[in-house]
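Researcher: Structure prediction, please.
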Amino acid sequence: MRASIGLCFLVLMGLYTPIRAQSDSLGLHQQADSSVADTTKSRWPVPNRAALYSLILPGAGQIYNRDWWKVPLVWGGVGAAGYFIVYNHREFTRYRQLTETTEEPLRLQYRALRDYHRRNRDFTILLTALGYALVAVEAYVDAHLYYFDVSDNLSMALKPGLMAAGPARAVPALGIQIRLGPH
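Model: Predicted structure follows.
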């Protein structure tokens, strides 16, 4: 049951990630109105900053990327992981004490239950650490893809091109120029 809840959480966390468009990542085509370009560029999230925020506080990278809907999922996952760690640790210490104080017939059962809860606690700690890293990686990747263009207006054009013969001159040559983007 717990494994299926954890699997559902991971699937839901990564299932819906909106991909936003990146208008011109290389800066080759400048817009005519520079004030519009400056205000848009200043609001782009910095990927390293998003990952750092998410490492400092889980969910802070998602807030920085303006993905508010992901924050309850992250905090719910942290809360659920914390609950299962505390629960399994309490049960582990309870059965550890019972193993030390009971007689032989029940001791084997208590020892098996002690080992069961210790494995679950350790496994939950490992999954929590992996989830923590996954949240930071998701914030980093989402910041990179913030303005990625996925519109239907994308096309590819094949044209003859000029090849650079030196730093300041281009020579006609046989080649193909591929431009991906809106035309």
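Model: Helices lie at 2-15, 34-42, 47-56, 60-64, 71-101, 104-144.
Researcher: Thanks, that helps.
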